Amino acid sequence: MAQMNPTNTTNDIINNDINNDLNNDDSKQDGQSLQIVSSPSASSPEQHPTAINNNSEEEEVITDGSTLDIDEDLTLQYRWALWYSAPKSKDKEKKWDTERVKKVVEVGNVKEFWRVFNNLAPPSTLKDGSDLHLFRAGVSPQWEDSFNAKGGTWTYRISADDTNQKLDTAWFNTVLTMIGDQFDDADDICGVVVSKRNQTNRLGLWVKHADDKDAVKRIGKQLKDINRIRSRIYFYSHDDAKNFNKPNKPSEMIL
Predict the structure, then answer these.
(1) Burial class, 101, CB count within 10 angstroms (exposed 0-12 / middle 13-18 / buried 19+)
(2) Would you state the torsion angle of the CA atoms of residues 247, 94, 142, 221, taken in this order, to the nearest 10 degrees?
(3) Cα(129)–Cα(198) distance, rounded to whole angstroms?
(4) How far apart, in Å, are the Cα atoms of 214 and each of 185, 219, 236?
(5) Listing from the earlier edge strand, what are the strands of the sheet with 152-159?
(6) Distance CA 83, CA 106 (A)
(7) pLDDT tens profile 72-101
């Protein structure tokens, strides 16, 4: 898995004590390793139980959330990669800046997941303009990736005036449901992005097939249910999002 050189921004994401366990020497660049700090409000598996399902008969499977043990190496349905985007520089605000989007770590089993997320800084503590992304391993968090290209995004907007817990809980609930393979249309989930902004924070759930409107609607309803969202959420295909100022957006869906 790729490992990035340490920077001041990535030093605020994950605790360094998991670095050697989750990254191997072959993945280091320039002989350096990622350094991260722990979050004082990190969650535990006891506080956020979920169920992990796996169809392989050769691998152990969790079907009861109460058995989610941080010390078990139970395999997740898919491998997931955590990415971090630092705030944009002023001269690149209108562009996708590959230099600011860094892959942090990959997780493939329950133990790896909890070691990362129990030490992950909650989104509310990030600098304005920052993003955390959790996507399928091998998929980059951008519209142009072939895995994402025909999809779209459900967006949940949270005012910056709301409590920090609202943003952090929505991110964590969605992550647990996603990596636990608990979405009814789990195969159609690409990843999730949480964006810390000055006025309106956002949670975006990326869906693989924007033209499968039934699946898109089911995913949106489930996103609202798991987070007890009372406000509206909006779906647009990536193609429509690229041309958002146009009056006609065929993919638009509002729940």
Answers:
(1) middle
(2) -40
(3) 8
(4) 10, 9, 14
(5) 101-109, 75-85, 131-136, 189-195, 200-207, 152-159, 234-237, 253-254
(6) 9
(7) 679 999 999 999 999 987 655 545 556 788
Which residue in this structure is represented by tokens 């079907």?
63
> Which burial class, exposed, middle or buried, applies to 212 when counting CB atoms under 10 A from its CB (0-12, 13-18, 19+)?
middle
CA distance linking residue 4 with residue 1, whole number of Å: 10
**202 in helix, strand or coil?**
strand
pLDDT at position 201 is 96
CB 236 within 8 A of CB 243: no
Q: Distance (Å, rounded) from C-alpha 187 to C-alpha 175?
A: 15
pTM: 0.75
Number of helices (H), then strands (E), in the chain = 5, 8
Q: Could you say which residues of the chain have pLDDT below 70?
A: 1-72, 90-98
Instruction: List domains and CATH numbers for the chain.
Output: 10-40+72-254 (3.30.760.10)
